[in-house]
Amino acid sequence: MECCKLRSVGLYNGKVCLAEWGDKEGEPSSFQVLAECTELVYVRLRTLEAVASFRFLERALAVMAHYDMPVFAMASSAGNFSVVTGADASALQNVCKELSVFAEVTVEKEVEVICVQETAERKGEM
Q1: How far apart are CA 4 and CA 78, in angstroms?
Q2: By three-state DSSP, how is residue 2 classified?
Q3: Which of 7, 42, 59, 61 sits 20 to 30 Å CA-CA off 23?
Q4: What pLDDT, on the 0 to 100 scale, is given for residue 126?
Q5: Rounded (10°) angle between helices 53-66 and 89-99
Q6: Structure confidence at residue 102 (pLDDT)
Q7: Which helix (H) or strand (E) holds 35?
Q8: Burial (Cβ within 10 Å: 0-12, 13-18, ≥19) of residue 35
């Protein structure tokens, strides 16, 4: 019985790829190229409460969309928002400058994101 799937967004040979593993062999069962880029960047935002909490995510995404910043993975929770992007340095600098008006911005470079997704019948057992 398969208990979970492992997904990874990473940079492989200059291409941003989504890989999925479903077995124990260590080889991906699927591999999808999302874009070409030279570096993945993890951007974490924490609200400064300068905008209403229900508008925080909307406002952050609007800034990123304005600069055509690609988003390959994202996660959010109350007051926090994180994205993995492949934006170039000048675009990233402009985005961070605008975001810093209403959010604390943290940037980490050269990242890979791994996500473990449980199947519905096993959820909560492990």
Answers
A1: 26
A2: coil
A3: 42
A4: 46
A5: 150
A6: 93
A7: strand 30-36
A8: exposed
CB 15 within 8 A of CB 35: yes
**Tens-place pLDDT, residues 86-111:** 877 888 999 999 999 999 999 988 77
The residues that bridge with 74 in the sheet, in sequence order, are 83
Which pair of structure tokens corresponds to residue 1?
A: 């019985």
CA angle 65, 87, 9 (to 5 degrees): 100
pLDDT at 112: 66
Measure the CA–CA gap between 123 and 126, rounded to whole angstroms: 7
Structure tokens at 52: 């209403």
Q: Which of 77, 87, 86 is nearest to 47 (CA)?
A: 77
Q: Which of 48, 126, 111, 114 is closest to 81 using CA atoms?
A: 48
Dihedrals φ, ψ of 2, to 5°?
Answer: -80, 130
